[in-house]
Design brief:
Distance between the termini: 40 Å
Radius of gyration: 13 Å
Structural class: mainly beta
Number of helices: 0
Largest sheet: 7 strands, mixed
Strand content: over 45%
Shape: globular
Helix content: under 10%
Length: 123
């Protein structure tokens, strides 16, 4: 059974950095397309970044140049390095696995989800 567990969220001042982790078990993370999404209160879940099984990465325009998605195959873990954080980055962040290459931007196309980790950026 695929299991994803996020960690690393917290409270940070604007301009600061956070490092999110997504530990996978029950499957080999590097064999699947993986994504990070976020959901702010009262808003829909939105795409943040994805890393394909090939290693190719994609980012939303909102985070491009500030966030970096990566993975450690030996640890079966995916990461999201978040720099230059803004108040508008405040949200619950989720990792997900299993979307097709044409569907990486669509949350409903992912097969497994973590429980989420909260990120709060204060001014």
């Amino acid at each position: 059974q695929a299991l994803l567990v996020e960690s690393g969220g917290g409270l940070v001042q604007a301009g600061g950095s956070l490092w999110l982790s997504c530990a996978a078990s029950g499957f080999t993370l590097s064999m699947f397309n993986m994504g990070w999404f976020r959901q702010a209160p009262g808003k829909e879940r939105e795409f943040v970044a994805a890393i394909l099984w090939s290693g190719t990465t994609y980012y939303s325009d909102a985070v491009k140049g500030r966030f970096t998605i990566s993975r450690d195959n030996a640890k079966n873990t995916m990461y999201l390095q978040m720099n230059s954080l803004k108040v508008e980055d405040t949200a619950d962040y989720y990792c997900a696995s299993g979307a097709g290459i044409r569907d990486i931007y669509l949350p409903m196309m992912y097969k497994s989800w973590g429980q989420g980790t909260q990120v709060t950026v204060c001014a």
